[in-house]
Amino acid sequence: MKKFLLSLVLLACVVRMSAQAEIKLSPIPLLFGYVAASFEYGFSPSFGLDGDFYFIEDVSAVSVSAKYYFNPDKGIDKFHVGAFVGAAESAPGLGFLLGYKWVSNKNVLFELGLGVGRSLDDEVIGYGKFHMGYRFGKKSAKLPATSGSN
Known about the structure:
8 strands; mainly beta; 57% strand; Porin; disordered C terminus; 8-stranded antiparallel barrel; single chain
């Protein structure tokens, strides 16, 4: 588990510092000795890819989600919808998600998300996220106001 967390930190350092990259952890599984972590990379102020990693007892799982953010203030923040690829038991599947992300002025973030999908063997796949984390890279996606001439 320590190697995994170190890998997440190193991954964030390798990413271009002009881009938005986030490392997030869920505090609830940590209370019980498990890890639920994610790494999100913002390709634009409105679009990000998120990889989720779960280590619970002897089970390790990975899911990938693509998120579209509506009216972001600081880039990849606020209300979002998306699709995820995950697994239930042994079969992969697809699903949809909704969520909201708050980002502070000091780049500390909180994210909530819920979703549901179906696997190839017809099982229901759930998606839930309560993460806290830190954003690396640019601080704001707002463009400066331009003054037009009359």
